[in-house]
């Protein structure tokens, strides 16, 4: 059982009760304490010891975790060597054990089938491949959920590195790994690594924090080595000499939402803000919970309670509205989808960081 590797963390977390409920969007949306990190750890420890099995309720509790890391950021025991670790790694291991046991929820099976047939967890998608030393990797989630952001990324690269290559086929495998489909995730990672080698990539930039996180954090766990340096596009853009490229005013009050994978996952907080500061006339305001404390907007792909997603997005949008902003800037196709699913804050526009930068470009 993969969970055995996390026995100490499970024991720690199983006795750390309720110190983090405030930061658990899934608990706030569902009002179910079994979805809280400490309760989930207790359930997983009981499964690991053979006391209980993978019942439907336990499986749902495991798949309801957002793997966002925010609960750990708010934990009263954060930084204490005897406190509880972030649950992300052992929840993913539990999901892989659930898949191995043949107990995965039906929607996980659908995602696995899409990958087997179409090469992405989101089904058949258009794509392109073009060689270059700098290759823009556009992940399947962006191609499916936010194609306008993919086009903004292309426009920015065209202005700053006209000879850039592109890989917009397949998938980074992030969603597959996150849902416990580790064999499929390894296959996806191998395909992506092979494609990047074929295209001659020395530097890979991606608009997707999920893809960047997968390549930087998860590929080594899968035994996949990339021959190229991987950067989220915000890191690469922050080092580029824009000159007068961003000269069109964007006269709005905006607030920036830190994606879980980009912020807590990769530690990227300053560069997106620095890029927004270059946009003429943009008035950037911070939400109460930002940077490492940013409250997640909801899940990525696959979730046992889809009806709860609007409530999670609404919670974050209400916080954004309190800043007086008219625009919420995010940096993930999933954040964009989740925030746009919110129902009671219609006056706020939701856009991607790259959408704003492309809008500020003249011509």
Draw up the topology in text.
Layout: H1 7-14, H2 25-30, H3 37-48, H4 56-63, H5 70-74, H6 88-100, H7 106-118, E1 129-130, E2 134-137, H8 140-145, H9 147-160, E3 165-167, H10 174-178, H11 182-198, E4 203-206, H12 209-222, E5 229-232, H13 233-238, E6 253-256, H14 261-265, H15 270-277, E7 283-285, H16 309-321, E8 327-330, H17 333-341, E9 349-352, H18 353-359
Helix pairs in contact: 1-3, 9-18, 16-17
Task: Describe this entry's structure for a reader.
This protein is of the alpha/beta class and 363 residues long. The protein is built from 18 helices and nine strands. It has helices at residues 7-14, 25-30, 37-48, 56-63, 70-74, 88-100, 106-118, 140-145, 147-160, 174-178, 182-198, 209-222, 233-238, 261-265, 270-277, 309-321, 333-341, 353-359; strands at 129-130, 134-137, 165-167, 203-206, 229-232, 253-256, 283-285, 327-330, 349-352. Strands 1-3-2-4-5 form a five-stranded mixed sheet, sandwiched between helices. Strands 7-6-8-9 form a four-stranded parallel sheet, sandwiched between helices. α16 packs across α17 (333-341). The longest helix has 17 residues, at 182-198. The termini are far apart. The mean pLDDT is 92.
């Amino acid at each position: 059982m993969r969970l055995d590797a996390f026995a100490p963390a499970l024991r720690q977390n199983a006795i750390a009760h309720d110190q983090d409920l405030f930061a658990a969007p899934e608990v706030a949306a569902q009002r179910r304490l079994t979805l809280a990190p400490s309760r989930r750890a207790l359930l997983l420890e009981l499964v690991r010891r053979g006391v209980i099995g993978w019942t439907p309720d336990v499986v749902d509790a495991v798949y309801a975790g957002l793997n966002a890391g925010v609960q750990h950021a708010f934990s009263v025991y954060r930084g204490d060597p005897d406190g509880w670790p972030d649950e992300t790694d052992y929840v993913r291991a539990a999901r892989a054990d659930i898949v191995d046991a043949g107990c995965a929820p039906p929607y996980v099976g659908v995602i696995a089938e899409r990958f087997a047939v179409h090469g992405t967890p989101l089904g058949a998608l258009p794509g392109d491949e073009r060689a270059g030393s700098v290759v823009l990797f556009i992940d399947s989630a962006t191609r499916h959920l936010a194609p306008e952001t993919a086009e903004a990324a292309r426009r920015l690269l065209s202005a700053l590195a006209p000879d850039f290559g592109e890989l917009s086929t397949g998938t980074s495998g992030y969603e597959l790994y996150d849902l416990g489909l580790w064999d499929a995730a390894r296959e996806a990672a191998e395909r992506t690594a092979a494609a990047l080698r074929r295209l001659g990539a020395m530097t890979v930039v991606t608009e997707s924090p999920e893809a960047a996180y997968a390549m930087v954090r998860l590929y080594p766990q899968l035994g996949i080595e990339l021959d190229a340096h991987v950067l989220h596009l915000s890191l690469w853009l922050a080092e580029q000499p824009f000159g007068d490229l961003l000269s069109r005013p964007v006269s709005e009050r905006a607030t920036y939402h830190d994606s879980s994978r980009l912020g807590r996952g990769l530690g990227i907080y300053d560069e997106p803000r620095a890029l927004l500061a270059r946009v003429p006339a943009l008035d950037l305001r911070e939400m109460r919970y930002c940077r490492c404390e940013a409250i997640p907007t909801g899940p990525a792909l696959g979730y046992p309670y889809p009806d709860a997603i609007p409530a999670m997005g609404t919670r974050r949008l209400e916080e954004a509205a309190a800043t007086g902003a008219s625009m919420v800037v995010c940096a993930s196709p999933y954040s964009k989808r989740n925030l746009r699913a919110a129902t009671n804050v219609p006056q706020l526009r939701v856009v991607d960081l790259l959408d704003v930068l492309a809008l500020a470009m003249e011509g």
